[in-house]
Amino acid sequence: MLKSVSSRLRLLRGNLGVILVSSGFWHLAGGMVMPFYALYVLGLGGSYVDIGLISALGSVVRILPALAGGYLADSMGRKRIVYTMTFLMALSELVNAVAPTHHFLFAAAALGAIFSGIREPAFGSLFADSTNPDNRALSYALWNVVPPLFGLMSPYIMGVLIDRHGVVVAMRWGYAFVVAMYVVAGILRWRYLEETLVPEAGERMGLRWVIGDLLGDFRSTLSALPRQLWVFVGLDLLYTAAWAFCDPYFVTYATEEVGLTSSQWGLSMTLVTVVNILVRLPAASASDRQGRKKFIWPTGLMFPVVIYLFLNSRGFVDVLILRVVFAVVVGLNAPAWQALFVDYAPREHRGRFNALLNVVRPLLWSGGTILGGYLYQTYSSRATFMVGIGALTVGAVAVLLFLSEPEKREE
């Protein structure tokens, strides 16, 4: 028992601890604004379709920065990219804070897409490099639990502020706080992160050299990846599209159709975080010992059931119960799913492959959110969720039939 506790404490030293704490400061502020973003778009004069269009713009703008970011992460290292882009991402949040109409949210989304697109491959690779096969799922569980713990009460606090001061005023305060926390996170990453991939001596990083070798290196990455990783990717993209139809519109459905107040929705988000803390860490440890698939496919079958029941909620208590069930299902599923990707992906290609996923996922997400907004606004508030339920059901069956455990987990 003491050995197990000591092993978990060692995980918090070094890069993993820095990432968890610095990301925690973002969650402290981000947890206030993200659950209510769709309401902010509507409050500034936008429509349900605009919610999807803003997401789509960010996805399209992200493509080239993500590709370049993946290449740079594997060729010039991770740390410098991570802390520089963290500072720059504060700029996009500043635009959100002062936006006079919803049109300015498009500009904020574009800026955020550029900076996060460059950052994410390096960030994901640095995190993966800081784990090992024996503690990988536990490490990802810590990533999914510890930073959100900082923002445990943030959604409820913002919900109360929205009920008292209105969505626009309260969200402006929230985004100003996000800017401050991005600066704090950037300082911590600049000061305390350690590089995990040092470029070879004499390696040139001129612009002409980068552009000349970019496509060739991505072809090398694609040819080096195992078949099961491609199966995983296909399923991951199917799930991405499915969630795109549903995720942005949970808050609007809960407040407009079920009748929840903003503070009630915020309280449900707080409860979700508590349940995640209780579920994810033991589930991740078990996944490291017993394998990933046995945690992934049963929970995959539960997702469409929970969403369908959510659509038939009759009040706050129903929503609260279903949010708890949803948190349990996510807590069992997510650490195993994230660890399985790293199990399959060779270390030397992770940055570029993360970049490819960071291009394709947002494109699917943007298409789903636009179509979801159109269905929500034109047909019915339930239509977009039913499409998502269908795709999630197909994905769960495909996991059971086609996904297998790796024979050897990558370092």
Key descriptive features of the protein:
mainly alpha; 411 residues; globular; Growth Hormone, Chain: A; single chain
Main β sheet profile: none
Counting H and I runs of at least 4 residues, what is the number of helices? 18
Record field, number of beta strands: 0
Helix content: over 70%
Question: What CATH first level would be assigned?
Answer: Mainly Alpha
Along the chain, the helix and strand elements come as HHHHHHHHHHHHHHHHHH
Estimated radius of gyration: 21 Å
CATH overall fold name: Growth Hormone, Chain: A
pLDDT averaged over residues: 84
Summed up, the domain count is 1
Would you identify the CATH architecture?
A: Up-down Bundle
The fourth-level CATH homologous superfamily is MFS general substrate transporter like domains
Low-confidence stretches: none
User: SS-based structural class?
Assistant: mainly alpha
CA-to-CA gap between the ends? Answer: 26 Å
Beta-strand percentage range:
under 5%
Give the overall silhouette.
globular
